[in-house]
Amino acid sequence: MTLPQLDAFGAPAVPSGVAVLGIPASIGQLTAYHAQAVGEPRGTVLFVPGFTGSKEDFRDFLPLLSALGWDVWAYSQRGQGDSVGPVGAGNYSLELFAADVFEVAAIVGNGAPVHLLGHSFGGIVAPEAVIAHPEAFLSLTVLCSGPNGWAGRHAETSEILAEGGSMGLWNRNNPHTVGQADELLTPDMAFLRLRAARTSSDNLRAGAYILRTHVDRSVEIAAAGLPVLIAHGEFDDAWPIEAQRAMAVRIGADYQVIPGGAHSPQLEAPGATVAILDRFWANHQPAIGTAELQSTQQYKE
């Protein structure tokens, strides 16, 4: 399959060995990073980013995994950053987010099952895709995400989004940037503000509602029959750590605490995160026929 090459989104440089590609999903074009495996391919991995996030959350992390032989992809979900952002909250249901995961996985895996990782809000979306289509995946990793929402979660966020949209939320969280020109900000901060401006307010409103009302799917995840890893940074303060640990017990999942990590351990403790993920995926390799199929996939980039 030929996937279109895209320009980088925002100012930060894309690392060497990482391509920016368009994914032709049913909803429209979703944007992705692809770091092709170095040496003998060991399997394909797909990352799903979290609330207010995008593929750029894994920009510097993907080459660390591709250097170990993993063919690694991260995409921006519908309404995130430079991915297509349909108008209307009805376009951002949990079922539709999960349907995108299944569709993207089929494309990047060239029809073969892939290892799936969901971070934070992506850790709610990814299990839904696994529950609906377990045959499309080799394993599931839930990174810094919990089993269910709780009353009042993101209630203030929802109010701010209703009044000021995505930029209203950005300005609340980053008041020091209000009125500042891009050149007065660091490149990373200027990018994050651009991403906020380009992120769909409907995506965020729907995401906040999903985070607040989501119910525990541990039983259904376990019934899907895939190897599961529940992992979080030792300092994760976005999801109750005990809830994440208990979720792993209910599923019968591998459970790992990432030393030095907080809510985004791929940024805060990349080396420790790579080691844990590499070990988990290596222990759950596909059958020979699937591995051969994955190793022969080719994309014109």
UniProtKB/TrEMBL annotation:
Organism name: Arthrobacter alpinus
GO CC annotations, alphabetized: membrane
Lineage of the organism: Bacteria, Bacillati, Actinomycetota, Actinomycetes, Micrococcales
GO terms, molecular function: hydrolase activity
Domain AB hydrolase-1: start-end pairs: 45-275
Entry keyword set: Hydrolase
Protein name: Lysophospholipase, alpha-beta hydrolase superfamily
Pfam families registered for this protein in UniProt: Abhydrolase_6
